[in-house]
Amino acid sequence: MVITSESILNSLNPEQQRAVQHINGPMLIIAGPGSGKTRVITNRAAHLVLSGTLNKASVLAVTFTNKAASELKDRISQMKIAGPEQITASTFHSFCARILRAHGSYVGLDRNYSIYDSDDQLSAIKESMIIAEIDTKQTNPRSIQNLISKAKTSRKDSRMMAQDADTYFEELAASIYSRYEELLQRNNAADFDDLISKSVDLLLNYPAVRESYNQNYQQVMIDEFQDTNASQYLLSKLLVQDHQNLTVVGDPNQSIYSWRNADITNILNFQEDFPDTQVISINQNYRSTQNILKTARNVITTNQLNIDNEIYTENPEGSPVISHEAFDELDEAAFVIAESKQLTQGPNPDFKLSDIAIMYRVNAQSRVIEEACLKSSVKYRIVGGIQFYQRKEIKDLIAYLSAISNPSDDISLIRAISNPGRGIGKKTLDSLKSYSTDKHLSLLDALQELNSEHENDGSIPLMFNSRSIKLLSGFYNVFHNFIAQSSKVPLVELIDLVLENSGLQSSILESSDKAQERWENILEFRETSREFNTQNALEGLSSLLDRLALINDVDSYDDTDNCLTLITLHQSKGLEFPVVFLVGLEEGLLPHSRSFDDHFQIEEERRLCYVGVTRAEKRLYLTHAFRRGLMGQYGPSIKSRFIEHLDTKKHAPFALPSNTATLISQNGVKVAKPKIKPVPTIGQTILHNAFGEGVVLDVLQINQDFEITIQFKESSGTKKLLHSFAPIEILDNI
To answer: Which helix (H) or strand (E) holds 600?
Structure first.
């Protein structure tokens, strides 16, 4: 079937048609969940090509995940339009990686630069801390990593970060940041934030390069625009500076990544930045039932940071949304698994296990659900567990390939030297690092110099001994051969050479820890690399390494296996399931306790709940527990404010144990059920088992319980306690 502009428009609703037909100037598409925004993006790209308005220019469609970019490419391919090569679908990071491969020399990178993933970045930060003589045990490297990332997305280098520092920790972070910048430059490497920021530097400072991209991409579309940060927004502006044909698609109500430095004001202020913006709302939901959308509207309605775009659907009313109060997390998990089995078993079940997703706020919540699945023999998968490319044997092999591609990459080379073990210990590696620093050489160049000096006159620097020099020289000779062969053999053959001659193959096969499974992982990786199997391994190697570095958790999601999906709410963005269980809907979990003192963070937590609700197509369950054990704490819970007053059908709640029963916590500690006791009033003096005497400041009824605010004497301060479980005694009556 031949696709034409007319057939494209006939398949769309009126709002979608308006968006697809828009050509010149900026456009803001407010796209509610399930409203067909991917359909709009792909059809608009096709319409632009078919209408002939592009001449020889191209359309650029940018999104956030490889999964979403692949879906765009697949849909465009399936349309079989003339000129599909005029449409580029990519993630921000992949697009910028390609820009820097072509023009990175302008910003200090050669074309074989390494991309450091989060683990590599952390290793580089630890190395920078050692150089700065800062104890990695006293100062958390991950906290430094987060501050550096925040600075980079805000377009701040280490000098600006130091100038803006308000605390000693921020000053410390700026000092480490400075060493980290130097280390990346020496290693010819870029982290994820650099891919964006260096591309922005390139387009800002080199007008000819920017103009070439403006001319090539006459239409730019940005998906999930509510999740962009400051650098990504600036990049978007630079890509359309000459023609202003920027279309952004998003929904402020689904902005949930501020912890990744996403800035919701980008979408809220877009019309101020582009005064001639055409604004189109596509708000008909094709995914969910009326009952689910009603719940979603009630969840989000109190938020203030949004743009009016009330979603609606012509789908059936559907099953009622079910709310369920469990006794504890064990009871909650048992309920979820029992309901899942009921929905998927029987002669003519309505659903398959793969139709069901169990969503939660924090990863720690998955443990008890996993145990319930195992106990009931229910297949499941966890999205965001240890990913294939993060397994040790794969990371070890990738380290060799990265150092072959970019011989300046000291971080990868150190891992290659250390794996498999070859008798080169920490002391020798520290000596090698010191030697390379003193000589202003990369580690590989330092190895070459040590090897040459030893072969020529047998000299050994004082910091080494004959054994360490022999081991280092042996590694250098093997690795130097890998580099020499990389320009002569295909990529798969190079991988085979590395596996055999590095000792990785024998180390894996001879290990006692899941040797066969680990070797099968290596073979799977080898098979994957065939896609890049050019005659010259170096040509395909950088493309392979780019893809591996830019993989994220959701990219590995595969809905072909018939099993339950366990997934965090943040990871669920962009996915949809016929049946969704939102578990742990309690104060402290959703909303998370870290958000309690920040109105803007509470709004983001509410948006996160909204995202979870709108993943559901036909059935939605909202569950919370009367008591919960999590991360070493066990005690009473308070139902989330987000699900108070929702119009839901309540499932039969748990049966409270009798007064003579004994409650058993998940860690085996017996807890006697408290007897009925009088509720204190404001002004009364009480005695607490642990905190001593205190005065009641406030009493607030919550469901069937009371929250009591007490000002304690001594150093205990003011505390809020649930009356039913607080070990208090009233000392006076007023």
So the answer is: helix 599-613
pLDDT at 652: 53
- Alpha-carbon torsion 11, 222, 145, 631, what sign? negative
Q: In terms of C-beta distances under 8 Å and separation of at least 24 residues, what long-range contacts does 411-417 make, across chains too?
A: 411/114, 411/116, 411/120, 411/123, 411/124, 411/127, 411/187, 411/189, 412/114, 412/120, 413/443, 413/444, 413/479, 414/443, 415/123, 416/479, 416/502, 417/475
Contacts of 99 (CB under 8 A, 6+ apart): 199, 202, 213
DSSP strand E in 283-327: where?
284-285, 312-313, 322-326
Does the predicted TM-score (pTM) go above 0.70? yes
pLDDT score recorded for residue 650: 66
Q: Give me the residues paired with residue 285 across strands.
A: 313
Q: Treating both helix axes as pointing N-terminal to C-terminal, what angle do 466-486 and 410-418 enclose, rounded to 10 degrees?
A: 120
C-alpha span between 517 and 505 (Å, rounded): 13
* C-alpha to C-alpha distances, 298 to 37, 109, 326, 511, 610, nearest whole angstrom: 23, 50, 23, 56, 9
* Measured distance CA(144)–CA(155) in Å, rounded: 17
Measured distance CA(191)–CA(211) in Å, rounded: 26
The per-residue DSSP string of 443-505 comes to HHHHHHHHHHHHHHH----TT--HHHHHHHHHHHHHHHHHHHHHTTS-HHHHHHHHHHHHSHH
DSSP string computed for 615-638: TEEEEEEEEEESEEEETTEEEE--
Core vs surface per residue 261-283: b (16+ CB within 10 A) or e: bbbbebbeebeeebeebbebbbb
β-pairing verdict for 322-326 and 718-722? unpaired
CA-to-CA dists, residue 518 to 120, 271, 386, 392, 452, angstroms: 21, 53, 13, 9, 37
- The neighbour count for residue 600, using CB atoms within 10 Å, is 12
Catalytic residues: 37-38, 223-224, 254, 615
The distance from CA 706 to its chain's CA centroid, rounded to whole angstroms, is: 38
DSSP character at residue 74: H
The rounded radius of gyration (Å) of the Cα atoms in the chain is 29
Q: How far apart are CA 713 and CA 645, in angstroms?
A: 38
Name 652's Cβ contacts closer than 8 Å, sequence gap at least 6: none
CB 602 within 8 A of CB 591: yes
Low-confidence stretches of the chain (pLDDT < 70) are 1-2, 83, 385-387, 535, 552-559, 630-633, 650-676, 701-705, 714-716, 733-734
Order the strands of the 616-625 sheet from edge to edge: 380-382, 564-568, 356-360, 577-582, 616-625, 322-326, 649-650
